[in-house]
Design a protein that fits this description.
5-stranded mixed sheet; 41 strands; 6-stranded mixed sheet; alpha+beta
Amino acid sequence: MKTILKRLCAAALILSLFASLAACSAPSSSAQNASQSGAASTGSAAGGTTAGGTGTSGETPAMVFQATYAALPEGIDYLNRPQVYDGRIWSLTSIYEEEGDAYLSAAVSFLPDGTDLKTTLLSVEDGVSYTAALPTSDGGFWAAVTVYEVNADGEYNYDRMSYELRRFDADGTQTASVDLSFAAENSDWFYVDRFLADADGRLYLICNDNVHVLDPDGAPLFTLTCDYVSSAAVTADGRVLLGYYGGRGSYVLSEVDIDKKDFGKSYELPGNGNLNGLAGGTDGYLFYVTSDDAFCGYNAETQSYDELFRFLRLDLNSDGLDSVLPLGSRTFLTACYEDDGQQLCTIREQPASAQKTTLTLACLYSNYELKSQIIRFNKTNPDYRIDILDYSQYNTDGDYEAGLSKLSADITAGNVPDLIELSQLPVATYAARGILADLGPLLDADTELSRDDLLPGALQALSIDGKLWSLAPQMTLMTLYGLRPVLGDRTSLTAQDIAALVREHPGVMPVANGTQESLLLILTMFTLDEFIDTETGECRFDSDEFRTLLGIAAAAPAELDYENYIDDDTRLQEGSALLATLPLSEVTDLQRLNVMMKGQYAITGFPTQSGSGTVASFETQLGISAQSAHMDGAWAFLRSLLTEDSGYHSWGIPVNRARYEAMLEDAAEAHYYTDENGRQVESPKMTMSTNGGPEIDIYAATEEEIAAFRALVDSVDRTYTYDEKLMGIITEEAGAFFAGQKSAADVSAVIQSRAKIYIAESR
């Protein structure tokens, strides 16, 4: 099936289908130093990078940051907001005690290599929970404590809680207590997430939207209120710095002004302002910022950030890191998660060793799984490593398209990456311009992976005019469904069928909770291959079929009453909607629908003149540059996402056939427990909540449910299209029809004219 120009909207729209378009951003430093990058780059002219740039890399630097790992001390499973104090790693955690078969709260410290563990067990009073701690210069520590009232039956009374600070000496003996009722009394939800001390010993309790400042003995001084404190640190000169959300959802980085009892000096954030962590500075830096994939130091003299390294080049996934703490000159420590749990990771600058050839993967937004798979590849492939270049770092609050514009400009200038994540990019246009390599010959030449190993529907959906310009490790199905009493046993619908249903049911929403504009957008982007020919570029927006879609959308409400919102399932059941959208990423989605609709539903897909109308979406969709000088290395990474042993575990349906079959087998496997009579009784595999309704127990999928899910997967032969500029043309012109100012014929003629010009220019 033909697939056309494709620039996907954000994930919120993909999953909810009627949600607003969302855009996220990722930062970069304002100053980048190639000699301090996490790993030297020796990639091809088409795709090598240095410290976040594109194009050919320079010579291997003499010094680079490198990561080494150490296990946590024996008996320690995790660290809760670790701190570096007096050269030791310090944390509040839990330790398992075999004698009492219980976990006990403890303050622990040890050397950065995981040795010389010192443990201070805290009191084991019933109903006492330790939430945060802070070491002190005398070898003791402060601890924030929540005390729950315990009922006669031994249950906690969550309506009666008290809060306090407790001070302990080096032996773990409590020496002082401070009542925190003053801080909790005006808070709907009080919780000391962390706290720290400035150079004069004042304490700062970080409690979600409030920061309570206390004197060194714990007496209250003042309280600052803001919108969620995400990060806090003490600067190199002893001042407290807070990172929090400001107006319009942006981040703010400000000092605490003790004299004014208010926020003081603010600092500009690196890149586009996505702040994930702070740490006190060393080596002449006032503080450090962990900003998406970059670790940056703030130079107070130049009032700018220097990028020290990027985590991915150290084979670290920044999405899974809490903080990076300075250990000494050009040396840092973080706690990271590996397959076997949390580990200590020391990052230090060292002489560069022999480097692998580095390939560049460009994307508009990276995700956790993609980063994880890049790290997995980098650790195992002997010849190549992948360096990700996230173009969202160029986006600004005023221009969410800046990253796309920058990527397009780089490609036009010949700075083409080796690999491109295409789920939000115009695949057909890139293919027509010769930017992408046809992956079909690479797949056919592979001696271990073949087309038979992949789901045929996914391959068909990803094909454009018979060629395979991209591949993806998993997919989600998007479709429409309704009740059988309304739809009968239909398995597909044309636009004319839906229009007839709308005429038969006046005043009923065509699609649940779809407004005129959002419904037209959804119907168009999921059926766009009905109106544009990718091979010729011809479009048919002046056709009867498109005018029918306009009429269907016009029957929807202009806007929704969100104060009295009714969910999709309820609207179908009460008869206020004919159809509803449905994403399917696993068998349980179909099982939930089966229970909610009591089996009386029909899945029809989106309106189409042929086929099922159910479409596939792809979270991670990769293509290879036709200009890459290292096609073998690029294919080695891409194929690693498609094999049976791929570690790609994002939500969705595996494209690898063996993994897909394993998913179905797991869905059909029953869970049992033994009752009081010794009988084996099937138990729920999971419990799903519904929109205000009863919870649903999900058991092993039946043969009928597996067969229905398999049939839907087998029916897929297309993906959907979101071209933002084209959708803008359509919704902008359709407004006149919805307002009754123009006829459907007039509006479709204008859309046809504008779309024809836009498509011709984009080709």
